[in-house]
Amino acid sequence: MLIEMPELGALEGKQASSLPGLAPISRQPGKWQGKERIQGGRASLRRAIYMPALVAARYKPNLKAKYD
């Protein structure tokens, strides 16, 4: 993460989550009721975070409860 986000120590929470594109973008035109999606940011960092997060959600009970 430090290689992909050298500015990590200087950012606040929302800025840090939007940099790799992890913050959901709310796009609700009219009466559309769908899921929010993530976009933008640094795809290489998002790919590096995905698998460890998936494994943690599967095997750590407290993270599994949050995921569910």
Question: How does this model look, in words?
Answer:
Helix 2 (43-59) packs across helix 3 (61-67). The model has no long low-confidence stretch (mean pLDDT 79). The protein has helices at 13-18, 43-59, 61-67. The chain has 3 helices and no strands. By secondary structure, it is an all-alpha fold. The protein has one domain (9-67). Helix content is 44%, strand content 0%.
Topology:
Elements: H1 13-18, H2 43-59, H3 61-67
Helix pairs in contact: 2-3
The amount of beta strand, in percent, is under 5%
Give the % helix: 40-55%
How many structurally independent domains? 1
How big is the Rg?
A: 14 Å
**How far is it from the N-terminal to the C-terminal residue, by CA?**
26 Å
Q: How many H/I helical runs?
A: 3
